[in-house]
Specification:
By secondary structure, the protein is of the alpha/beta class. It is built from nine helices and eleven strands. The strands form three sheets. Strands 5, 6, 7, 8, 9, 10 and 11 form a seven-stranded mixed beta sheet that branches. A two-stranded parallel sheet has the order 1-4. A two-stranded antiparallel ribbon has the order 2-3. The relative contact order is 0.20.
């Protein structure tokens, strides 16, 4: 999979895979959750999915018995659907022991990511203790928010407190900085790098929580082993 990922990220060209599935795979339509987190994954107003994860999955599944159906929603909605079996795959999920107890994961990570803290351009926020008493926008159910090494536990370990403002997307987090509602926001590094120039935000030196981004599957669902084998083989 790493060769495929490198090719897609550098060229964004789609090629035909040569790996074929066994004939007795029990599912043919794959329901894939998508949400807005560009450049990794995004959904247009018309419901069209795009981004690195979409390109990778479509390349892997081309000319196989699997057909893709995308199910747009928020990040939190996607994880809930996955847990309840409403979708088969949720891309862009950071692996953790806690999540591995709820979902199945493929074994090869798609990319490494971590959290970055952004502030308003007038705020003086350089180190994590500068967040004390600040209003910080964070995404619901994100590993960078609630994970073992997420921002909630990070600030607690320094004995400081913040007022966390929960949002559904990183776009909303930056908007809260833009309109003065939040002093800072926690986003993933790729979103920050792609959108920092178009927002009234400033990247701080605060980074934390390196994470392996993988594909998550409904726990113990028939056909998962074939899917995981296919995805990891590329």
């Amino acid at each position: 999979m790493k060769k495929l990922i490198l090719t897609l990220l550098l060229t964004m060209f789609i090629f035909t895979p040569c790996y074929y599935l066994e004939a007795d795979i029990p599912i043919s339509i794959l329901k894939i959750g998508v949400y807005n987190n560009p450049p990794k994954i995004s959904v247009s107003e018309s419901g069209t999915a795009s981004g690195y994860h979409v390109d990778i999955l479509e390349a892997i599944l081309k000319d196989t018995p699997y057909k893709i159906e995308y199910y747009p929603g928020t990040w939190e909605e996607g994880l809930t659907r996955l847990k309840n079996g409403g979708i088969d795959i949720m891309p862009d999920v950071a692996w953790s022991e806690k999540r591995a107890a709820v979902y199945d994961f493929n074994n090869e990570y798609v990319l490494l990511n971590w959290a970055s803290v952004y502030s308003s351009k007038t705020a003086i926020i350089n180190i994590i203790t500068d967040l004390n008493t600040k209003k910080v926008a964070v995404m619901r159910n994100s590993i960078h928010t609630e994970g073992k090494y997420g921002i909630i536990n990070q600030v607690a370990s320094f004995g400081i407190s913040c007022e966390f403002i929960y949002v559904d997307t990183y776009e909303e987090a930056f908007e809260l900085i833009d309109n003065g509602t939040a002093d800072a926001a926690v986003v993933n590094r790729l979103y920050g790098l792609m959108n920092e120039e178009s927002s009234s935000v400033k990247r701080t030196s605060i980074v934390f929580n390196p994470s392996q981004i993988r594909y998550a599957f409904t726990k113990n669902k028939p056909g998962n082993s074939n899917l995981i084998k296919l995805i990891d083989s590329r």
